[in-house]
Amino acid sequence: MAEHEEKKHEESFIDKIADKIHGHDSSSSDSDEDKPSKSSIKAKLFRLFGREKPVHHVFGGGKPADILLWRNKKLSAGALGIATVIWVLFELLEYHLLTLVCHLLILALALLFLWSNASQFINKSTPHIPEVQIPKEPVSEFALALRFEINRAFTVLRDISLGRDLKKFLSLCCLSVFSHVDGFH
């Protein structure tokens, strides 16, 4: 008798799980108002771990989410290729960022030079390169501020060397001694 009740309980539990998976609820009536729509069932099925928001929305939506989720396969493959090239350059070949920037600037300058000279032979327009001029006012203000800070540093160094500021002299001596002990040269 106990086995029969246990089987019945087990079957009803399995039926409840099956009904939940298939979107049916045995306790609800068969009216259209109580049944969940197909779109809500489909939306719940495609969300992992019971999330409320889709993954596309979690990643911020738009093009970045499309690239991360491989919805635009060409852009995603391009981003993966660029990341791989950067990793190979910096990790495997031990290339440095400053060297890369300098080489890219030299390459851009060479291409612009060739383009401007070749445009005369093939009757094409020369590249439009805007004229860049640095304004006088901000540069002079920066130079004055830098001059003021350098003069102030010289004054502090002069005061230390003349023995007028013993506290700074001792702190610089201790800093110098400890930097040699720690290996900072």
TrEMBL record:
Signal peptide: none annotated. It is found in: Endoplasmic reticulum membrane. Residues 64-172 form the Reticulon domain. One of its GO terms (cellular component) is endoplasmic reticulum membrane. It comes from the Eukaryota. It holds the Pfam family Reticulon. It is a multi-pass membrane protein. Keywords: Endoplasmic reticulum, Membrane, Transmembrane, Transmembrane helix. This is Reticulon-like protein. InterPro entries: Reticulon, Reticulon-like. GO terms for biological process: response to bacterium. The keyword Membrane applies. The chain crosses the membrane at residues 75-90, 96-115.
